[in-house]
Amino acid sequence: MKVSIITVCFNSAETIQNTFDSIRNQTYNNIELIVIDGASNDGTLDIIESNKDIISKMVSEPDQGLYDAMNKGINIANGDIVAILNSDDIFPSDDVIANVINKFQETNCDILYGNISYKNKKGETVRIWDSSPYLKGSFVKGWHPPHPSLFVKKSVYDRCGLFDTDFKIAADFEFMLRVFEKNDFKISYLNETFVSMLVGGRSNTLRGIISGQKEIKMAFKKNNINLPKLYFIRRYFIKLKEYLK
Questions:
Q1: Who's near 42: CB < 8 A, 6+ residues apart?
Q2: Which phi and psi (to 5°) does residue 214 adopt?
Q3: Is the pTM of this model over 0.90?
Q4: How far apart are the first and last CA of the chain?
Q5: pLDDT tens string 12-59
Q6: What confidence tens digit (pLDDT) does each residue in 40-52 have?
Q7: Residue range of the domain that includes 202
């Protein structure tokens, strides 16, 4: 099975080499790396050029945001399975892709997800998001898988569509809600850390949290799923347990 890894970047010179190194070191070799750059001007393009031996396709042009860039990558992906590894994320183990493929073959699933960890700039782990097996209806209880850990068959995107770019912060949540709760795909969970991410980002600011909550409400409405009154309390209680680990 071919795995298409999509790396979206913009002015990522400080971190993208680590991302490339973690892909280069994978023991599984049937990988198509697609880099979608938003017209960087900080040296990112030079780093991309120096890693062209592992890059199958590269686009560098202005985009309409993160999800628009992800959609560009998905549209040109030729792999059986699509993963998104952004330019400040890494695979923490050389066997991540090999273990993912083994699980796909073992379960014949359409979607696979795992766990993720968050690290600060010193490389210290500050949070671990240990997920759990999916049960239908879990989203309304405040649960959802970590999107960076998702490996999705290309056929799922072909059937359900891409990220809705009307969402600026929570398009990944809306996509997962749509494909998990509104369809009958076979979904598997592997209790391993697939991705290590740097802490921070727009969605973790106060303004981002407020905007994210509004978009989550929009996501439920778009998919005709009733949002329980205690949804956000349940959601943040789940996150609090992660921080307390």
A1: 11, 12, 13
A2: -65, -40
A3: yes
A4: 36
A5: 999 999 999 999 999 999 999 999 999 999 999 999 999 999 999 999
A6: 999 999 999 999 9
A7: 3-243
Rounded to 5 degrees, φ, ψ at 45 are -65, -35
Q: Which amino acid is at 133?
A: P
Q: What DSSP element (H or E) covers 219?
A: helix 206-222
**What CATH number should be reported for the domain holding residue 152?**
3.90.550.10
Tokens of 198: 């740097």
Going by DSSP bridges, is the β-strand pair 125-129/111-119 parallel, antiparallel, or unpaired? antiparallel
CB 206 within 8 A of CB 125: no
**What distance in Å separates the CA atoms of residue 16 and residue 35, rounded to the nearest whole number?**
11
DSSP per-residue letters across 104-141: HHHH--SEEEEEEEEE-TTS-EEEEE------TT-GGG
- The letter for the amino acid at 80 is D
Integer Cα distance of 52 and 26 in angstroms: 16
Number of separate domains in the chain: 1
Distance CA 122, CA 109 (A): 37
